[in-house]
Amino acid sequence: MDEHGAAYRGLLIRHLVMPNDVSGSKAILKFIAANLSTESYVNIMSQYRPCFKANGDDQINRSITHSEYRAVINTAKELGLHRGF
Q: Are strands 12-16 and 41-45 parallel, antiparallel or unpaired?
């Protein structure tokens, strides 16, 4: 890291949680834990907001709930992922 805390190298995986698990969170986290490393930095994001034509799609026409987000965090922890979130 430099004097400002910026990393010179590494990998940060960003995953956007979507309503009704359309983003396949559990499968993605399982892949990361099994094929990359449980030491991977995973940023699990809750910022999804329906825009444009998403309002017409019953699967993604709403923001995620707190319980949906917590379920993904819990899955990550159960799989041994512990960095990021």
A: parallel
pLDDT of res. 5? 72
Amino acid at 44: I
CA count, 13 A, side-chain hemisphere, 61: 6
In this structure, what token pair is assigned to residue 46? 């809750």
Q: What is the mean pLDDT of the chain?
A: 94
At 84 the pLDDT is: 86
- pLDDT (tens digit per residue) in 19-42: 999 999 999 999 999 999 999 999
- Number of H helices and number of E strands within the chain? 2, 3
Contact in structure between 25 and 17 (CB atoms under 8 Å): yes
User: b/e per residue, 1-40, with b = 16+ CB within 10 A?
Assistant: eeeeeeeeeeeebebebbbeeebebeebbeebbeeeeeeb
